[in-house]
Amino acid sequence: MTATWGPDRPVRRTVLALGAAGLALILTGSALDLLWLLGIGVWSFIAATLIDLVYRP
Q1: CA–CA separation, 1 vs 10, rounded Å?
Q2: Alpha carbon separation from 32 to 9, 19, 25 (Å, rounded)
Q3: The pLDDT value given to residue 57
Q4: Taking Cα atoms as reference points, which of 13, 12, 20 lies closest to residue 28?
Q5: How many angstroms separate the Cα of 12 from the Cα of each of 22, 29, 39, 48?
Q6: Is the confidence at residue 5, as pLDDT, over 80?
Q7: Amino acid 10: pLDDT
Q8: What is the rounded distance in angstroms from the CA atom of residue 47 to the CA atom of residue 57?
Q9: What CA–CA distance (Å, rounded) separates 21 from 13?
Q10: Selection from 29, 5, 1 nearest residue 16 by Cα
Q11: pLDDT at 49
Q12: Neighbours of 37 (CB within 10 A)
């Protein structure tokens, strides 16, 4: 990972946290066979990906 400029750090931290939480929810939802938890995880991972795509030039 390269060094990021000062104002980019909170966005990068948010994207990483949202992606990690989404991945944890996906794994938990699939292990426990809870579709609603899996859906929340997928949508949070999608949100992290979209924030990363939109924010970066």
Answers
A1: 15
A2: 34, 20, 10
A3: 58
A4: 20
A5: 15, 25, 23, 10
A6: no
A7: 87
A8: 17
A9: 12
A10: 1
A11: 93
A12: 17
**Given the structure tokens 């924010």, which residue do they identify?**
55
State the residue for tokens 């938990």: 28
What are 23's two structure tokens?
């991945």
At residue 6, the pLDDT reads: 73
Token pair for residue 16? Answer: 């990483």
Per residue in 12-49, pLDDT tens? 899 999 999 999 999 999 999 999 999 999 999 999 99
Rounded distance, CA 15 to CA 28, Å? 20
Q: Residue written as tokens 């949070």?
A: 44
